[in-house]
């Protein structure tokens, strides 16, 4: 039996620090960092509120990263938070953590795929080249055959690339992440030296009550967004919290690093540095995109109020700054963000499922490693199959599922920080600073969950909508049923 284990195929160690950074950064920065200035950030928090919220969010993620950096060398196995919870708290806790992490990671793949059609629509000058064939509506969102075909092709292509070897996937990820960073830096430099940019365009600095402004515009009573601007200490605090509360969603991705721990070919001591750099770059992209969108557009509040759909403010700002090259630049940046997100979350999802299967928490088939490529082929094929639902369901329906991503991330952060405290006590080797950071991580993780799940006056834009609560309840019920079926096999490693 031991000889069989020695000869069983395992994950190959092919990832260098650049690969791992690119995976984390690619997961952190997705489509949302480019469309959310018009959808969430500017109306809810403004330029100042968003910048403060993102900087605070990045700081909290770095605090939480201390626990990840400590736990990875202790348990350098695929599975990350799931493995940490299993070693520290037992199988029920590990299953709970893993189940929600699957939702956090896997739902991001189809969600990113639905952005592909929107990208093409945004940069094709209104040609609607993908709007052909049959179409239908789900939750008010039009789904076209052309968009389904392109998104499905991308999902299958990048899924197969993950199967063909983690090194190949890592190289592609580095290229995509590098192009993304270069594009955003170029746009930032252009904004700094453009006469179209003005500080006078930034107000309202703390955002405004979008719902009230839209209602007033509908009734013909809208004159100026200044009437609805957030002000006063409570209004400013609410504007910051509105974006700070979604930090787990905004920065989810740095925590995917432990999922590939078995494939590192470098010292685990570098994990902290890689995480910090990925978080810092992600924060830069969020703040830069949001600030540029406002600074280059004098009437951005009116565009938000008067638009019947979410306005792509950054694209309009880029066009004003650089003309057609600006549109191309944003197109490249957002395409790289979407594709790197698909690639990164594919890797994280498949490694998490592989780890859970290997310990009996998921069917044994997901724990099989391809003998030729050294990747969890079956888990990856399952991820591709599930992700193909994205282009069919459309963006709005999937948005209900993706709301669970922030909850899943918060749960992963909580159990990692809590497991750090347990492991410090077990090995008696943690510093006082690490203990403080782990305790702070536990508190912040619980705080994020409360902000997302509990309706708080003034923060209606933060917590779940009705559909998201229903999806969360369904996921919990499915998790309980699956646990009852699989529980006797849990904790028994598959040979």
How would you portray this structure in words?
With 495 residues, the chain is mainly α. The chain has one domain: Amino acid/polyamine transporter I, CATH 1.20.1740. The protein is 69% helix and 2% strand. The longest helix is centred in the first third of the chain and has 43 residues, at 32-74. It starts with a helix and ends in a 9-residue tail after the last helix. The model is unreliable at 1-7 (pLDDT under 50).
Task: Characterize this entry briefly.
The protein has one domain: Amino acid/polyamine transporter I (Up-down Bundle).
Features:
single chain, 495 residues, mainly alpha, Amino acid/polyamine transporter I, two-stranded antiparallel ribbon, globular
Largest sheet: 2 strands, antiparallel
Number of strands: 2
Helix segment tally = 20
Domain count: 1
Task: Report low-confidence residues grouped into runs of 5 or more.
Answer: 1-7
* CATH class membership: Mainly Alpha
Query: Gyration radius, to the nearest Å?
Result: 22 Å
Give the SSE layout.
Elements: H1 2-7, H2 17-28, H3 32-74, H4 81-89, H5 91-106, H6 108-123, E1 135-138, E2 141-144, H7 145-163, H8 166-192, H9 210-218, H10 232-244, H11 247-251, H12 271-295, H13 300-306, H14 313-322, H15 324-358, H16 377-387, H17 389-393, H18 395-427, H19 432-453, H20 466-486
Antiparallel strand pairs: 1-2
């Amino acid at each position: 039996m031991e000889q069989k284990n020695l000869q069983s195929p395992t994950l190959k160690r092919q990832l260098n620090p650049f690969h791992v950074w690119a995976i984390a950064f690619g997961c952190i920065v997705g489509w949302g960092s480019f469309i959310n200035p018009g959808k969430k950030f500017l109306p809810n928090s403004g330029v100042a509120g968003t910048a403060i919220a993102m900087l605070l969010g990045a700081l909290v993620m770095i605090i939480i990263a201390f626990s990840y950096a400590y736990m990875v060398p202790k348990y350098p196995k695929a599975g990350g938070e799931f493995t940490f919870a299993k070693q520290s708290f037992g199988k029920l806790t590990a299953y709970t953590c893993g189940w929600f992490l699957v939702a956090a990671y896997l739902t991001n793949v189809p969600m990113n795929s639905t952005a592909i059609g929107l990208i093409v629509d945004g940069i094709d000058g209104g040609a609607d080249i993908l709007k052909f064939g049959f179409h239908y509506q789900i939750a008010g969102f039009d789904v076209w055959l052309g968009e389904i075909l392109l998104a499905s092709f991308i999902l299958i292509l990048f899924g197969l690339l993950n199967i063909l070897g983690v090194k190949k996937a890592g190289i592609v990820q580095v290229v995509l992440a590098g192009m993304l960073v270069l594009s955003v830096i170029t746009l930032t430099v252009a904004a700094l030296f453009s006469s179209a940019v003005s500080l006078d365009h930034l107000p309202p600095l703390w955002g405004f009550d979008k719902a009230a402004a839209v209602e007033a515009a509908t009734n013909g009573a809208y004159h100026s967004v200044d009437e609805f601007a957030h002000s006063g200490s409570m209004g400013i605090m609410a504007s910051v919290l509105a974006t700070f509360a979604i930090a787990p969603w905004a920065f989810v991705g740095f925590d995917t690093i432990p999922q590939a721990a078995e494939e590192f070919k470098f010292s685990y001591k570098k994990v902290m540095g890689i995480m910090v750099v990925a978080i810092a770059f992600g924060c830069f992209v969020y703040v830069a995109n949001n600030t540029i969108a406002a600074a280059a557009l004098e009437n951005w509040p009116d565009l938000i109020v008067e638009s019947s759909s979410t306005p792509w403010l950054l694209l309009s700002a880029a066009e004003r700054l650089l003309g057609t090259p600006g549109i191309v630049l944003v197109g490249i940046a957002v395409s790289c963000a979407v594709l790197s997100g698909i690639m990164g979350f594919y890797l994280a999802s498949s490694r998490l499922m592989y780890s859970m299967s290997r310990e009996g928490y998921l069917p044994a088939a997901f724990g099989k490693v391809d003998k030729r490529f050294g990747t969890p082929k079956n888990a990856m094929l399952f991820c591709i199959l599930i992700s193909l639902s994205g282009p069919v369901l459309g963006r709005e329906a999937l948005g209900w599922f993706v709301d669970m991503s922030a909850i899943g991330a918060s749960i992963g952060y909580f159990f990692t920080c809590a497991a750090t405290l347990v492991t410090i006590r077990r090995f008696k080797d943690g510093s006082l600073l690490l203990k403080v950071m782990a305790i702070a991580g536990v508190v912040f993780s619980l705080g994020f969950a409360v902000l997302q799940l509990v309706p708080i006056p003034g923060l209606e834009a933060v917590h779940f909508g009705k559909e998201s609560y229903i999806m969360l309840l369904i996921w919990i019920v499915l998790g309980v049923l699956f646990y009852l079926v699989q529980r006797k096999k849990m904790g028994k490693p598959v040979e």
